[in-house]
Structure formats: C-alpha cells, structure tokens
Amino acid sequence: MSSPSQVGSGSPKPADSTARDAAEDDLPQYSNACGSSPPRWQPRFEDLTSESLGRLSHVDRRPLDPPPECFSTPSPLRVRSNDFPPFRIPSISDKLIDGFRVLYPRDPLEKHGITQDDWVRFLEDLVIAARLATQGLSAVGSRVPVKPLPARCLFITWTPGAAYDIAFQRSRLGEVKALITVWNESAFIRRKVRVSIQVREEQGRKSGYDLIVESL
Q: What is the pLDDT of residue 66?
C-alpha cells in the first residue's frame, strides 16, 4: 500500500514502485502456522467488553443450547470474497476463562451477514466453554470428535454439556477450538468468514490468545 507521503503526490511513480504497490495490495490470507505473527491491520471496532463482562457475571446458559439464530438464518445472497484483510481479536489476559475483548467490527462483518448480536454471542460462548472445561464439562460434547486418551477408556454417550469421561478430556484450549469449529461450520464459512485461534507470545513466553478473523 502507498505510504501517507505518496498519497496525493502529483509526480508519477516509477514502474517498479507501482508493481510493489500492486503486490502489497494483493493481501494473502493469514495463516496461523506456528511462528507466524498476528496480522497488524485492524478495522474500526465497537467496544462492548464492559457490557459483556457484566452480563457474563450472572449468565446461566450454555453454548449451543439453544443453538444461535445465525446457525439457521440464510446467508446474504451476494457476499464478496477476500474483501477485508485478516484482523485479530485479543484475549483479555493469558487465561481463556477471562475471555476475549468483545469488539464488533461492524463494517466488515455486517456485509457478510454477521450481526452484532451474532458476534457478541460467539465471543461470550467461548468464555463459557472455557469455564465449563475448568469444571470438567463440555459445551460441545459429541458435535466434534474427541481423540480418546490411552488406557482406562470407558465409552459413553456424549451430550452437549455432559461431564467429561476421564478418557475423553479436552483442555480449555481444545474445548474453545472445538466450539470455534462448530461456529465456522454452522455460520461463518457459508458467509465467507473463518475464525481461528492462536497463542500469542511475547519474548518467548505465552502472553495470551488472539482470534484471527479472515475473509474467504
């Protein structure tokens, strides 16, 4: 992209500079491969964190029960692909049970049919899922396969919110990832958006988590 000093300049750019600008404008999809850094571009956010934290302090519900409305509502008829660069939603602390900042980027997400209520519900569900995992409960249950641990494998029937069998425990991160997968497959991907989670590191130590939001 052109630097601020180039904007509005009357002098023509050299050919190699134009080629570099074109290459920079063609933003590749963000990959959350190990060792990569979170994307730097950020949209304009509406910060609903305080309101959400107040609601979560006395919330008595479970993720997916009942299923979010956006799981069954139709997607917009026309949704553009790759229409915004990837951006990140940071966690509040280095603990998943504290959740993520509830930031709603209205301009990019509304175009994809993701409302403020949908996005707030998604972010709040991640917090609830992490807190349930601390209690040995699953918010996802059998909706996403769990790899059994070796030895003492008792096979049980899974239901959302059921107590973990010791042979099928998921970590808080594993449970949050599983819930993100459900939201991706049920609501986001058909609206040409995908969310993933990445551990954030500073100076070689974990400092928190980032949700990476991509336009597909």
A: 87
Decide: 164 and 177 in contact? Cβ < 8 Å.
Answer: no
The sign of the dihedral angle between the CA atoms of 39, 105, 97, 135 is negative
Q: Using the 8-state DSSP alphabet, how is residue 163 labeled?
A: B
pLDDT digits (tens, 9 = 90+) for 47-102: 999 999 888 887 778 898 889 999 999 999 889 999 999 999 999 999 999 999 99
Question: How many CA atoms lie less than 13 Å away from 20 in the CB half-sphere?
Answer: 8
Other Cβ atoms less than 10 A from the Cβ of 37: the count is 11
Report H helices in the chain.
15-25, 49-56, 106-110, 116-134, 172-183
* pLDDT classification of 37: cutoffs 50, 70, 90: low
Cα separation, 113 vs 111, in Å, equals 6
Q: Please give the Cα distance from 150 to 184 (Å, whole number).
A: 29
Position 3, amino acid: S
pLDDT at residue 215 tops 80: yes
